[in-house]
Amino acid sequence: MLLATGYLLLIAGYLLLIAGYLLLTTALSFDVIIAGAGIVGAACAWECARAGLRVGVVEPRMVGGGATAAGMGHLVVMDDSPAQLALTRYSQVLWRSLAEHLPDDCEYRECGTLWIAADADEMAEVNRKAALLQSHGIPSEVLDAQQLTEIEPLLRQGLAGALRVPQDGVAYPPNVARFLLAQAVESGAKVFLGQKITGLSARGAELSDGTALTTNAVVNATGHWSPALTPQIPVKPRKGHLLITDRYPQSVRHQLVELGYLKNAHAVAADSVSFNVQPRATGQLLIGSSRQYDATGPEVEPHILQAMLRRVTEYMPALAQMSVLRVWTGFRAATPNHLPLIGPVAQESPKPKLYLATGHEGLGVTTAPGTAQILADMLLGCETAIPADPYSPINFA
Amino acid sequence: MITLTVDGKSVTVPEGYTVAAALAHAGLWAGRRAVSGGRRGPVCGMGVCYECRVTLDGQPHALSCRTLCAAGMEVRTDG
To answer: A288 forms bridges with which residues in the sheet?
Structure first.
Protein backbone atom coordinates (compact mmCIF):
# COMPACT_ATOMS: atom_id res chain seq x y z
CA MET A 1 0.00 0.00 0.00
CA LEU A 2 2.80 2.36 1.04
CA LEU A 3 4.96 1.19 -1.86
CA ALA A 4 2.19 1.87 -4.40
CA THR A 5 1.72 5.38 -3.00
CA GLY A 6 5.45 5.88 -3.17
CA TYR A 7 5.58 4.86 -6.82
CA LEU A 8 2.59 7.10 -7.59
CA LEU A 9 4.31 10.04 -5.93
CA LEU A 10 7.49 9.36 -7.90
CA ILE A 11 5.61 9.28 -11.22
CA ALA A 12 3.71 12.44 -10.27
CA GLY A 13 7.03 14.09 -9.44
CA TYR A 14 8.52 13.14 -12.81
CA LEU A 15 5.42 14.39 -14.62
CA LEU A 16 5.66 17.69 -12.78
CA LEU A 17 9.31 18.01 -13.77
CA ILE A 18 8.49 17.33 -17.42
CA ALA A 19 5.56 19.76 -17.34
CA GLY A 20 7.77 22.41 -15.77
CA TYR A 21 10.48 21.88 -18.37
CA LEU A 22 7.96 22.08 -21.22
CA LEU A 23 6.39 25.21 -19.73
CA LEU A 24 9.76 26.88 -19.41
CA THR A 25 10.92 26.02 -22.90
CA THR A 26 7.62 26.90 -24.57
CA ALA A 27 7.61 30.18 -22.63
CA LEU A 28 10.86 30.96 -24.44
CA SER A 29 9.69 29.51 -27.75
CA PHE A 30 8.61 31.92 -30.45
CA ASP A 31 7.64 32.07 -34.10
CA VAL A 32 9.49 35.33 -34.48
CA ILE A 33 11.91 37.41 -32.42
CA ILE A 34 11.99 41.11 -33.23
CA ALA A 35 15.15 43.03 -32.40
CA GLY A 36 14.33 46.65 -31.65
CA ALA A 37 11.28 48.27 -30.08
CA GLY A 38 11.31 51.52 -32.01
CA ILE A 39 8.16 52.31 -33.95
CA VAL A 40 9.03 49.85 -36.74
CA GLY A 41 9.77 47.00 -34.34
CA ALA A 42 6.69 47.77 -32.25
CA ALA A 43 4.46 47.90 -35.33
CA CYS A 44 5.90 44.57 -36.55
CA ALA A 45 5.30 43.03 -33.12
CA TRP A 46 1.70 44.26 -33.16
CA GLU A 47 0.89 42.95 -36.65
CA CYS A 48 2.59 39.60 -36.05
CA ALA A 49 0.99 39.09 -32.63
CA ARG A 50 -2.50 39.89 -33.80
CA ALA A 51 -2.00 37.54 -36.74
CA GLY A 52 -1.52 34.79 -34.17
CA LEU A 53 2.27 34.42 -34.26
CA ARG A 54 4.19 33.93 -31.00
CA VAL A 55 6.24 37.12 -30.81
CA GLY A 56 9.23 38.06 -28.68
CA VAL A 57 10.68 41.59 -28.74
CA VAL A 58 14.23 42.32 -27.59
CA GLU A 59 15.13 45.92 -26.70
CA PRO A 60 18.29 47.04 -24.86
CA ARG A 61 17.22 50.58 -24.09
CA MET A 62 13.70 52.00 -24.17
CA VAL A 63 10.54 51.38 -26.14
CA GLY A 64 10.16 54.04 -28.81
CA GLY A 65 13.81 55.15 -28.64
CA GLY A 66 16.41 55.71 -31.35
CA ALA A 67 15.20 57.65 -34.35
CA THR A 68 11.62 57.12 -33.15
CA ALA A 69 12.29 59.46 -30.22
CA ALA A 70 14.39 61.93 -32.19
CA GLY A 71 12.44 62.55 -35.39
CA MET A 72 9.52 64.76 -36.34
CA GLY A 73 6.80 62.15 -36.65
CA HIS A 74 5.64 63.64 -39.96
CA LEU A 75 3.30 61.21 -41.76
CA VAL A 76 3.86 62.09 -45.38
CA VAL A 77 3.52 60.66 -48.87
CA MET A 78 6.79 61.02 -50.78
CA ASP A 79 7.36 60.45 -54.48
CA ASP A 80 11.12 60.15 -54.94
CA SER A 81 10.38 56.81 -56.63
CA PRO A 82 7.26 54.78 -57.46
CA ALA A 83 8.23 52.30 -54.74
CA GLN A 84 8.56 55.08 -52.16
CA LEU A 85 5.21 56.53 -53.17
CA ALA A 86 3.57 53.11 -52.99
CA LEU A 87 4.90 52.36 -49.51
CA THR A 88 4.20 55.81 -48.04
CA ARG A 89 0.67 55.90 -49.47
CA TYR A 90 -0.08 52.31 -48.33
CA SER A 91 1.15 53.26 -44.87
CA GLN A 92 -0.75 56.54 -44.78
CA VAL A 93 -4.04 54.73 -45.41
CA LEU A 94 -3.17 52.38 -42.52
CA TRP A 95 -2.30 55.34 -40.26
CA ARG A 96 -5.66 56.96 -40.95
CA SER A 97 -7.52 53.86 -39.85
CA LEU A 98 -5.18 53.32 -36.88
CA ALA A 99 -5.77 56.92 -35.78
CA GLU A 100 -9.19 56.33 -34.26
CA HIS A 101 -7.68 53.76 -31.87
CA LEU A 102 -4.70 55.84 -30.79
CA PRO A 103 -4.87 57.38 -27.31
CA ASP A 104 -4.67 61.19 -27.04
CA ASP A 105 -1.05 61.13 -25.96
CA CYS A 106 -0.08 59.88 -29.42
CA GLU A 107 -1.02 63.40 -30.61
CA TYR A 108 -2.17 62.23 -34.05
CA ARG A 109 -3.40 65.16 -36.15
CA GLU A 110 -4.26 65.25 -39.82
CA CYS A 111 -2.91 68.75 -40.31
CA GLY A 112 -1.70 68.22 -43.88
CA THR A 113 1.59 69.21 -45.52
CA LEU A 114 2.37 72.32 -47.52
CA TRP A 115 5.25 71.81 -49.99
CA ILE A 116 6.50 75.39 -50.42
CA ALA A 117 7.63 76.71 -53.81
CA ALA A 118 10.00 79.68 -53.66
CA ASP A 119 10.10 80.43 -57.41
CA ALA A 120 8.64 79.55 -60.79
CA ASP A 121 10.82 76.45 -61.20
CA GLU A 122 9.63 75.08 -57.89
CA MET A 123 6.04 75.99 -58.82
CA ALA A 124 6.42 73.82 -61.94
CA GLU A 125 7.52 71.03 -59.61
CA VAL A 126 4.40 71.67 -57.49
CA ASN A 127 2.21 71.18 -60.54
CA ARG A 128 4.07 68.04 -61.54
CA LYS A 129 3.60 66.59 -58.05
CA ALA A 130 -0.08 67.55 -58.04
CA ALA A 131 -0.66 65.63 -61.28
CA LEU A 132 1.30 62.61 -60.02
CA LEU A 133 -0.60 62.47 -56.72
CA GLN A 134 -3.91 62.88 -58.52
CA SER A 135 -3.10 59.95 -60.81
CA HIS A 136 -2.68 57.86 -57.64
CA GLY A 137 -5.92 59.06 -56.07
CA ILE A 138 -4.12 61.11 -53.42
CA PRO A 139 -5.92 64.42 -52.76
CA SER A 140 -3.88 67.59 -53.18
CA GLU A 141 -4.45 71.26 -53.92
CA VAL A 142 -2.23 73.81 -55.66
CA LEU A 143 -2.08 77.16 -53.83
CA ASP A 144 -0.93 80.39 -55.43
CA ALA A 145 1.08 83.06 -53.62
CA GLN A 146 -2.02 84.85 -52.35
CA GLN A 147 -3.70 81.71 -51.07
CA LEU A 148 -0.47 80.67 -49.41
CA THR A 149 -0.22 83.97 -47.49
CA GLU A 150 -3.82 83.64 -46.36
CA ILE A 151 -3.45 80.10 -45.13
CA GLU A 152 0.00 80.55 -43.51
CA PRO A 153 0.55 84.24 -42.74
CA LEU A 154 3.91 83.78 -41.03
CA LEU A 155 5.62 82.67 -44.25
CA ARG A 156 7.63 85.43 -45.92
CA GLN A 157 6.25 87.48 -48.76
CA GLY A 158 7.37 86.67 -52.27
CA LEU A 159 6.99 82.89 -52.25
CA ALA A 160 5.47 81.41 -55.40
CA GLY A 161 2.92 79.06 -53.89
CA ALA A 162 2.59 75.58 -52.49
CA LEU A 163 1.12 72.11 -52.85
CA ARG A 164 -1.25 71.22 -50.03
CA VAL A 165 -1.59 67.50 -49.24
CA PRO A 166 -4.44 67.37 -46.72
CA GLN A 167 -4.25 63.70 -45.74
CA ASP A 168 -0.69 63.98 -44.46
CA GLY A 169 -0.46 64.28 -40.70
CA VAL A 170 1.72 64.23 -37.61
CA ALA A 171 2.00 62.05 -34.53
CA TYR A 172 4.17 61.67 -31.45
CA PRO A 173 6.11 58.51 -32.35
CA PRO A 174 7.43 57.29 -28.95
CA ASN A 175 3.90 57.05 -27.57
CA VAL A 176 2.63 55.35 -30.72
CA ALA A 177 5.44 52.79 -30.36
CA ARG A 178 4.54 52.23 -26.70
CA PHE A 179 0.86 51.85 -27.60
CA LEU A 180 1.51 49.36 -30.41
CA LEU A 181 3.85 47.30 -28.25
CA ALA A 182 1.28 47.24 -25.43
CA GLN A 183 -1.29 46.01 -27.95
CA ALA A 184 1.16 43.32 -29.07
CA VAL A 185 1.63 42.22 -25.46
CA GLU A 186 -2.14 41.99 -25.07
CA SER A 187 -2.11 39.63 -28.04
CA GLY A 188 0.52 37.49 -26.30
CA ALA A 189 3.85 39.05 -27.29
CA LYS A 190 6.69 38.97 -24.75
CA VAL A 191 9.10 41.86 -24.34
CA PHE A 192 12.70 41.42 -23.16
CA LEU A 193 13.62 44.94 -22.07
CA GLY A 194 17.20 45.78 -21.20
CA GLN A 195 18.39 42.86 -23.32
CA LYS A 196 20.30 42.61 -26.56
CA ILE A 197 20.67 39.69 -28.96
CA THR A 198 24.28 38.58 -28.46
CA GLY A 199 24.21 35.53 -30.71
CA LEU A 200 22.21 33.69 -33.34
CA SER A 201 22.18 29.93 -33.77
CA ALA A 202 20.13 27.30 -35.56
CA ARG A 203 17.88 27.14 -32.49
CA GLY A 204 17.28 30.85 -32.27
CA ALA A 205 18.76 33.76 -30.38
CA GLU A 206 20.78 34.24 -27.22
CA LEU A 207 20.29 37.35 -25.08
CA SER A 208 22.83 39.35 -23.10
CA ASP A 209 21.78 37.72 -19.82
CA GLY A 210 22.26 34.27 -21.29
CA THR A 211 18.58 33.53 -21.90
CA ALA A 212 18.15 31.30 -24.92
CA LEU A 213 15.13 32.03 -27.10
CA THR A 214 13.92 29.38 -29.52
CA THR A 215 12.65 30.83 -32.78
CA ASN A 216 12.48 30.16 -36.49
CA ALA A 217 12.72 33.78 -37.52
CA VAL A 218 14.52 36.91 -36.37
CA VAL A 219 13.62 40.42 -37.56
CA ASN A 220 16.24 43.14 -37.43
CA ALA A 221 14.39 46.39 -36.69
CA THR A 222 17.26 48.18 -34.96
CA GLY A 223 17.51 51.21 -37.22
CA HIS A 224 20.96 52.73 -37.58
CA TRP A 225 22.38 50.02 -35.30
CA SER A 226 21.19 47.30 -37.69
CA PRO A 227 24.57 46.33 -39.21
CA ALA A 228 25.65 45.19 -35.72
CA LEU A 229 23.13 42.33 -35.81
CA THR A 230 23.27 41.53 -39.55
CA PRO A 231 26.67 42.69 -40.81
CA GLN A 232 27.28 43.97 -44.32
CA ILE A 233 23.81 45.39 -44.88
CA PRO A 234 23.97 48.80 -46.61
CA VAL A 235 22.65 50.90 -43.69
CA LYS A 236 24.52 54.03 -42.62
CA PRO A 237 23.64 56.58 -39.94
CA ARG A 238 22.49 59.98 -41.19
CA LYS A 239 22.51 62.60 -38.48
CA GLY A 240 19.79 65.19 -38.08
CA HIS A 241 19.21 68.18 -35.81
CA LEU A 242 15.84 69.39 -34.54
CA LEU A 243 14.67 72.05 -32.15
CA ILE A 244 11.41 72.86 -30.38
CA THR A 245 10.10 76.28 -29.42
CA ASP A 246 7.98 77.57 -26.59
CA ARG A 247 4.22 77.77 -27.15
CA TYR A 248 2.98 80.04 -29.94
CA PRO A 249 -0.60 78.85 -30.47
CA GLN A 250 -2.27 79.35 -33.83
CA SER A 251 0.97 80.45 -35.50
CA VAL A 252 1.30 77.59 -38.02
CA ARG A 253 -1.42 75.24 -39.30
CA HIS A 254 0.26 72.66 -41.56
CA GLN A 255 3.60 70.91 -41.64
CA LEU A 256 5.56 73.31 -43.83
CA VAL A 257 8.37 71.89 -45.96
CA GLU A 258 10.40 73.54 -48.69
CA LEU A 259 10.60 71.64 -51.97
CA GLY A 260 14.37 71.70 -51.65
CA TYR A 261 13.91 69.19 -48.78
CA LEU A 262 13.28 66.50 -51.37
CA LYS A 263 16.52 67.29 -53.19
CA ASN A 264 18.44 67.16 -49.92
CA ALA A 265 16.77 64.03 -48.59
CA HIS A 266 17.55 62.18 -51.78
CA ALA A 267 21.09 63.40 -52.30
CA VAL A 268 23.87 60.93 -51.61
CA ALA A 269 26.65 63.19 -50.46
CA ALA A 270 27.08 66.60 -48.82
CA ASP A 271 25.60 67.91 -45.62
CA SER A 272 22.39 69.88 -46.06
CA VAL A 273 19.71 71.85 -44.26
CA SER A 274 16.08 72.46 -45.25
CA PHE A 275 13.13 74.50 -44.01
CA ASN A 276 10.78 72.08 -42.24
CA VAL A 277 8.38 73.30 -39.52
CA GLN A 278 5.67 71.41 -37.68
CA PRO A 279 3.00 72.75 -35.33
CA ARG A 280 2.41 70.70 -32.19
CA ALA A 281 -0.95 70.60 -30.40
CA THR A 282 0.50 72.80 -27.62
CA GLY A 283 1.36 75.51 -30.14
CA GLN A 284 5.04 74.64 -29.92
CA LEU A 285 6.88 74.53 -33.23
CA LEU A 286 9.18 71.65 -34.13
CA ILE A 287 11.89 73.05 -36.42
CA GLY A 288 14.24 71.21 -38.77
CA SER A 289 15.91 69.82 -40.66
CA SER A 290 19.47 68.75 -41.34
CA ARG A 291 21.27 65.80 -42.86
CA GLN A 292 24.90 64.82 -42.40
CA TYR A 293 26.72 61.78 -43.67
CA ASP A 294 29.97 61.59 -41.84
CA ALA A 295 29.03 62.79 -38.39
CA THR A 296 29.54 60.13 -35.77
CA GLY A 297 28.86 61.86 -32.49
CA PRO A 298 25.47 62.86 -31.09
CA GLU A 299 26.56 66.33 -30.01
CA VAL A 300 24.70 69.38 -31.33
CA GLU A 301 26.93 71.04 -33.91
CA PRO A 302 26.77 74.85 -33.91
CA HIS A 303 27.64 75.29 -37.59
CA ILE A 304 24.82 72.96 -38.66
CA LEU A 305 22.39 74.61 -36.25
CA GLN A 306 23.36 78.04 -37.54
CA ALA A 307 22.89 77.01 -41.19
CA MET A 308 19.52 75.45 -40.33
CA LEU A 309 18.32 78.54 -38.46
CA ARG A 310 19.41 80.81 -41.28
CA ARG A 311 17.48 78.66 -43.75
CA VAL A 312 14.30 78.48 -41.69
CA THR A 313 14.22 82.19 -40.87
CA GLU A 314 14.50 82.89 -44.61
CA TYR A 315 11.15 81.17 -45.07
CA MET A 316 9.59 82.28 -41.79
CA PRO A 317 11.15 85.51 -40.41
CA ALA A 318 8.99 85.45 -37.26
CA LEU A 319 10.88 82.35 -36.09
CA ALA A 320 13.84 84.60 -35.26
CA GLN A 321 11.82 86.11 -32.39
CA MET A 322 10.72 82.80 -30.95
CA SER A 323 12.07 81.16 -27.84
CA VAL A 324 13.76 77.79 -28.39
CA LEU A 325 13.43 75.38 -25.46
CA ARG A 326 15.54 72.47 -26.61
CA VAL A 327 17.84 71.26 -29.42
CA TRP A 328 18.74 67.64 -30.06
CA THR A 329 20.11 65.24 -32.64
CA GLY A 330 19.27 61.79 -33.90
CA PHE A 331 20.46 59.27 -36.47
CA ARG A 332 18.33 58.06 -39.35
CA ALA A 333 19.09 54.67 -40.92
CA ALA A 334 19.97 55.47 -44.53
CA THR A 335 20.32 53.14 -47.52
CA PRO A 336 21.86 53.89 -50.92
CA ASN A 337 18.55 53.88 -52.83
CA HIS A 338 16.41 55.73 -50.24
CA LEU A 339 14.15 52.72 -49.84
CA PRO A 340 13.91 50.67 -46.65
CA LEU A 341 15.06 47.07 -46.42
CA ILE A 342 12.06 44.81 -45.74
CA GLY A 343 12.38 41.08 -46.20
CA PRO A 344 14.63 38.05 -45.86
CA VAL A 345 18.39 38.42 -46.18
CA ALA A 346 20.52 36.04 -48.17
CA GLN A 347 22.14 33.83 -45.56
CA GLU A 348 24.54 30.90 -45.45
CA SER A 349 22.93 29.00 -42.60
CA PRO A 350 19.18 28.52 -43.14
CA LYS A 351 18.17 29.01 -39.51
CA PRO A 352 17.03 31.10 -37.95
CA LYS A 353 15.52 32.86 -40.93
CA LEU A 354 16.74 36.46 -40.84
CA TYR A 355 14.58 39.37 -41.94
CA LEU A 356 15.30 43.06 -42.12
CA ALA A 357 12.84 45.86 -41.29
CA THR A 358 15.24 48.78 -41.28
CA GLY A 359 16.89 51.48 -43.38
CA HIS A 360 13.85 53.77 -43.41
CA GLU A 361 15.87 57.04 -43.32
CA GLY A 362 13.39 59.88 -42.78
CA LEU A 363 10.28 57.79 -43.41
CA GLY A 364 10.39 55.25 -40.60
CA VAL A 365 7.44 56.66 -38.70
CA THR A 366 5.41 57.16 -41.87
CA THR A 367 6.01 53.65 -43.20
CA ALA A 368 5.98 51.69 -39.93
CA PRO A 369 2.42 50.35 -40.46
CA GLY A 370 3.08 49.34 -44.07
CA THR A 371 6.42 47.78 -43.18
CA ALA A 372 4.75 45.80 -40.39
CA GLN A 373 2.00 44.43 -42.64
CA ILE A 374 4.47 43.49 -45.38
CA LEU A 375 6.69 41.73 -42.86
CA ALA A 376 3.79 39.87 -41.23
CA ASP A 377 2.57 38.77 -44.67
CA MET A 378 6.03 37.45 -45.46
CA LEU A 379 6.23 35.52 -42.21
CA LEU A 380 2.78 34.05 -42.79
CA GLY A 381 3.55 33.20 -46.40
CA CYS A 382 0.79 35.51 -47.66
CA GLU A 383 0.91 37.76 -50.67
CA THR A 384 1.82 41.32 -49.73
CA ALA A 385 -0.68 44.11 -50.44
CA ILE A 386 1.89 46.03 -52.50
CA PRO A 387 4.86 44.50 -54.41
CA ALA A 388 7.67 44.04 -51.89
CA ASP A 389 10.55 43.39 -54.34
CA PRO A 390 11.76 47.02 -54.35
CA TYR A 391 12.48 46.76 -50.59
CA SER A 392 14.14 43.37 -50.75
CA PRO A 393 17.54 43.13 -49.06
CA ILE A 394 18.50 40.71 -51.85
CA ASN A 395 18.72 43.75 -54.14
CA PHE A 396 21.95 44.58 -52.34
CA ALA A 397 23.29 41.05 -52.01
CA MET B 1 1.31 107.16 -11.80
CA ILE B 2 1.33 104.95 -14.88
CA THR B 3 -1.70 103.56 -16.68
CA LEU B 4 -1.51 100.36 -18.71
CA THR B 5 -4.09 97.84 -19.94
CA VAL B 6 -4.22 94.25 -18.71
CA ASP B 7 -6.50 91.96 -20.76
CA GLY B 8 -8.31 95.10 -21.95
CA LYS B 9 -8.84 96.53 -18.43
CA SER B 10 -7.19 99.77 -17.37
CA VAL B 11 -4.74 99.47 -14.46
CA THR B 12 -2.99 102.40 -12.77
CA VAL B 13 0.11 101.89 -10.62
CA PRO B 14 2.93 104.04 -9.23
CA GLU B 15 6.10 104.45 -11.30
CA GLY B 16 8.68 101.79 -10.66
CA TYR B 17 6.19 98.92 -10.47
CA THR B 18 7.06 95.83 -12.47
CA VAL B 19 4.39 94.38 -14.72
CA ALA B 20 4.15 91.43 -12.31
CA ALA B 21 3.40 93.85 -9.48
CA ALA B 22 0.77 95.57 -11.63
CA LEU B 23 -0.84 92.20 -12.34
CA ALA B 24 -0.94 91.40 -8.64
CA HIS B 25 -2.40 94.87 -8.00
CA ALA B 26 -5.14 94.05 -10.56
CA GLY B 27 -5.89 90.68 -8.95
CA LEU B 28 -4.28 88.72 -11.81
CA TRP B 29 -1.36 87.10 -9.98
CA ALA B 30 -1.72 83.63 -11.61
CA GLY B 31 -2.26 84.82 -15.17
CA ARG B 32 -0.55 81.99 -17.04
CA ARG B 33 -1.80 78.49 -17.89
CA ALA B 34 0.23 75.30 -18.04
CA VAL B 35 -0.27 72.84 -20.92
CA SER B 36 -2.45 70.85 -18.51
CA GLY B 37 -4.61 73.96 -17.93
CA GLY B 38 -3.44 74.63 -14.38
CA ARG B 39 -2.82 78.21 -13.27
CA ARG B 40 0.72 79.57 -13.01
CA GLY B 41 2.11 82.79 -11.57
CA PRO B 42 5.44 84.36 -10.58
CA VAL B 43 7.53 82.35 -8.09
CA CYS B 44 11.07 83.70 -8.02
CA GLY B 45 10.42 87.35 -8.81
CA MET B 46 13.86 87.62 -10.33
CA GLY B 47 13.61 86.28 -13.88
CA VAL B 48 14.72 82.67 -13.56
CA CYS B 49 11.57 80.59 -13.05
CA TYR B 50 9.77 81.84 -16.20
CA GLU B 51 6.37 81.35 -14.57
CA CYS B 52 5.54 85.07 -14.79
CA ARG B 53 5.39 85.18 -18.59
CA VAL B 54 2.81 87.41 -20.32
CA THR B 55 2.32 88.82 -23.81
CA LEU B 56 3.62 92.38 -23.76
CA ASP B 57 2.69 94.74 -26.61
CA GLY B 58 2.17 91.69 -28.82
CA GLN B 59 5.39 89.92 -27.80
CA PRO B 60 4.67 86.56 -26.16
CA HIS B 61 6.71 85.05 -23.32
CA ALA B 62 7.89 88.36 -21.85
CA LEU B 63 9.04 88.17 -18.20
CA SER B 64 6.61 90.37 -16.27
CA CYS B 65 8.76 90.35 -13.11
CA ARG B 66 11.69 91.80 -15.05
CA THR B 67 9.78 94.49 -16.94
CA LEU B 68 8.92 97.94 -15.54
CA CYS B 69 5.50 99.35 -16.39
CA ALA B 70 5.36 102.02 -19.08
CA ALA B 71 2.40 104.23 -20.03
CA GLY B 72 0.09 102.62 -22.56
CA MET B 73 1.61 99.15 -22.28
CA GLU B 74 -0.74 96.37 -23.42
CA VAL B 75 -0.50 93.21 -21.35
CA ARG B 76 -2.29 90.00 -22.17
CA THR B 77 -2.40 87.01 -19.83
CA ASP B 78 -3.82 83.53 -20.42
CA GLY B 79 -6.86 84.66 -18.39
So the answer is: A276
